[in-house]
């Protein structure tokens, strides 16, 4: 009871009402000022600054017109393979002989190109429409290579014209020879199915592989040329690898996207 009476008496006493009130110490004002300046700077940077980003996606080296799958027009047994992988053939060139009930039929190329794969062997029984070879549409040995990068559809709209592209080739150690340089040539308007990719690359397995996480958009990349490298293309190192490049080489493409303002990340 004694302590309670002393507390009540202290509250009723006006003797300390004229003492000044200290709102904040000088150190507190300094911290508050620094915080406000930092917040203002961050706000300005968020609205006027820009942040660059990249998207990585699977890629493959091809010639500009792609490939096609040669299909057998008949069903029967393969009696002869008349060409070999890597050979360039004109249109209507013989590829296989197939024995049918009506006699022997020759399967021929539709367009001129290079045989990139043969899927039929002597003695094999094939059905009508079976894929027997993949033909890359290349007329001359010095036709330039391109890279096709299969980018997720949600990133396609952020790819600017002539965006820089770095390509890490599976067959080239990047730690030793660096990455292949290029720039975006074109971006497709629609996402591609596994069948469309297989038809262009002449490889159904790649069609399934590149669509495993959804239908991507094909981005065509023009490779930068260089007279100082063995491959004839520009690399992040001075010389690049000591050998040439071939089509259907798998790679990973890293494409530089359009710069974005940080505030855009917060807006719906």
Note the total helix count. Answer: 6
Mean pLDDT: 84
Oligomer: single chain
Q: How many beta-strand runs?
A: 14
What percentage of amino acids are in beta strands?
A: 25-35%
**Helix fraction by DSSP (H/I, runs of at least 4):** 10-25%
Please state how the strands of the largest beta sheet are arranged side by side: 1-10-13-12-11-14
What report would you give on this structure?
The chain has 268 residues and is an alpha+beta fold. It has six helices and 14 strands. The strands form three sheets. The chain has a six-stranded antiparallel barrel. Strands 2-9-7-4 form a four-stranded antiparallel beta sheet, with helices on one face. A four-stranded antiparallel beta sheet has the order 6-5-3-8, with no helix packed on it.
A few lines on this structure:
With 268 residues, this protein is an alpha+beta fold.
Question: Mind sketching the topology for me?
Answer:
Blueprint: H1 2-12, H2 26-48, E1 54-63, E2 67-71, E3 76-81, E4 88-89, E5 94-100, E6 103-108, E7 113-118, E8 125-126, E9 131-136, E10 145-152, H3 153-156, E11 164-169, H4 174-177, E12 180-187, H5 194-201, H6 204-210, E13 216-223, E14 250-256
Helix pairs in contact: 5-6
